[in-house]
Amino acid sequence: MALDTSEEEQIEKIQTFLRQNGWFLAIGLVLVLGGNFGFRSWEDQKQAAAEAASDAFTTFQAAAREGKTDDDKRAAAMDLGDAFIANHPGTDYAVLAGLQIAKLHFSAGNLSEAEAALRAITAAASSQLAPLVQIRLARLLGAQDRPEEGLTVLAEPLEWAGFMAARHEVEGDLLYQLDRLDEARQAYQLAVNTAGEEGLPGLTMKVEDLTFATASMDPAISDESSNNEAAFGRSAGSWSRRIGRWDASRFKGQWMMIWRMLPYSLLLLGLVSGCSWFDGKDEDVIKPAALKKIQSEVTFSALWTARVGAGAADKAIKLEPALSGNRIFAASADGTILAVQADTGNKVWSRDVRDLYAEADVDHAFAKDVDVITGGVGAGNDIVLVGTSAGEVLALYQSDGSIAWRAEVSSEVLAPPQILNQLVVAQAIDGSVTGLDAFTGEQRWRFSTSLPALTLRGTATPILRDDVVIAGFANGRVALIDPDRGVAAIDERVAAAKGRSDLERLIDIDGKMVFQSGRLYVASYQGRILAIDLNAGRPLWSEEASTTVGLGAGFGNVYLASVSDQITAFDMDNGRIQWELDDLLNRDLTTPIAIGSYLAVGDFEGYVHLIAQSDGRFVGRRRVDTKGLYTPALADGNRLYVMGNSGRLSAFEIQ
Predict the structure, then answer these.
(1) Beta strand pairing status for 567-571 and 577-581?
(2) What CA–CA distance (Å, rounded) separates 515 from 572?
(3) Pick from 459, 470, 474: which is nearest to 508 by CA?
(4) What is the pLDDT of residues 94-149, one digit of tens each?
(5) Residue 213 three-state SS
(6) Taking the mean position of all CA atoms in its chain, how far away is CA 213?
(7) Stretch 417-438: mean pLDDT, rounded?
(8) Close Cβ partners of 266 (under 8 Å, ≥ 6 residues apart)
């Protein structure tokens, strides 16, 4: 096998091989010893046995899938697996069943039982399956903070050919746990060299992470800086280990990315804190614009307020409410999803998503003091969707909040998952977009793109249409993806990186894009706002711009709130500026949302500002949350639903 493939692909190939050819050695033996006597009868028995084993294993697999989130079904699946192994001892099917049993133990938090299940099948594993068993055993040992034992397992002389990249990647993860960063980087590089194109983006990021880490620990750097960064690195590693999922190593890049962001965050803090790092002289402090008295032209009436849960500590988490029928669905970062009547605010149901996990599973899925729900809310087809910090999309039934399905995606989801017809789309912070079946949660496809070395924390919200999925990425590009196959039909550059430093080269597309009348409007950080005619397949116009919250639209205009919080109205047809508003500079505005003839934007002090779409004048203002607003409002007719940083959802009527 020239290139490595995923473990699941390997298992699928092995199953197919066993079903079609699993007994060919026995056939040869019969031909040698017994000629053709009774061969047809034996062949029929052989074929029936092979098919029976395959069918029994398929039944066990289905039970194992159902047992992921249900204790009773998990126990039943394990019993079924034990019976299968007893009825098919020494076969590759028995080894595959043992792998599934180990995974079920792990999902229940029973790490020692999972280890025992893997060790029980080690001797019986064929040369084709032995590497897979050892890789999973090494991962499990790492999850139990026994990385040295994991390295010993990986050092065993096996035929690693088809699993070499996976072996090197797990080796790198274990070395990283031991703070042997240079060796970990070398292991990741070996994985990159043998992974093939499909494995390159994530592995390359790990190599870059540790290249940065080892460079940061160079003796030429001051002792204080080295000690601080090393301490932060150890903290990030510990955090990653506490997540401890079956494939927990895939989250390490996220925490390493946070580590890499630390020096830049400190630099930015220094720039705005009024203290120079170099000469000690005071610098100009960036101050938010003071609010001027306005002449109110509308009535901004409060209708109701509902407590959802605790607010997010992470500004990148913007949990937008969603409207479906006569219900509003809202989520809080601490894990609560709330359904209320849209007209009265009366609670229909409330659900803590942590209750959807087995008790032992919660600690593995969610690190302590870390936000649980990070992306949401999506609603449609009678389900409610949220993304979690554990790298999963959860679907709950709108009627009662019971679980419909859980699906793993590649990493943390910060944007609301989107749904249309039978397709759910979730965009993760690692640059991937995953298409899921809306009824089962099964993965239909995954589209991936490479990311720059440094990115802003956040993602764009995908747009779903019947014939296209539109996604913007941190590399400054927007892709039009086939919703059936998950391949890009068009890949357009919105912004090009400029400058010498990583900070100067940030060009992320974050926040909202606008799709209207066959045209796409998208804007990036330190780049431009671009209008594309999708029917003609050509750009219409572009202007220099920089935003992290994206765009709104209405009255024939597209509205941009810049990084300095200037609001600009561009004509949708030609990009001409219709008006600009500078009275809210540096107030950390939310995405502009059209409501009737007005725009609604929130700010860091919790004010909602109403602005006339016609000329940009203020027509109303109200403070709705003293802890501020990160999340864009939701408009429905003349009603405005606002999710505040305090974790409260409020409804207002504009007249």
Answers:
(1) antiparallel
(2) 11
(3) 474
(4) 888 888 888 888 877 788 888 998 998 888 888 778 888 889 999 899 988 899 99
(5) helix
(6) 24
(7) 96
(8) none
> Per-residue pLDDT averaged across 198-224, rounded?
50
pLDDT single digits (tens) 134-160: 899 998 999 888 999 999 999 888 877
Angle value at C-alpha 443, between 437 and 449, nearest 5 degrees: 120
Cα–Cα distance measured from residue 126 to residue 80, given in angstroms and rounded to the nearest whole number: 22
Phi, psi of 379 (to 5 degrees): -150, 140
All domains in the chain, ordered by first residue: 7-254 (1.25.40.10), 288-317+555-655 (2.130.10.10)
For tokens 């690693």, name the residue.
160
32-90 residue pLDDT tens: 344 444 544 544 555 556 556 666 777 777 777 776 656 778 788 888 888 888 888 87
Q: Are 158 and 131 in contact (CB under 8 A)?
A: yes
Tell me the Cα Rg of the chain. 27
Tell me the whole-structure pTM to 2 decimals. 0.61
> 77, 63 in Cβ contact below 8 A?
yes
What residues contact 506, with CB distance under 8 A and at least 6 apart? 452, 454, 455, 456, 497, 525, 526
489, containing H or E segment:
strand 488-493
Return the percent helix, strand and coil in the chain, to nearest 5.
Answer: 35, 25, 40
Which among 523, 516, 537 has a CA at the least distance from the CA of 476? Answer: 523
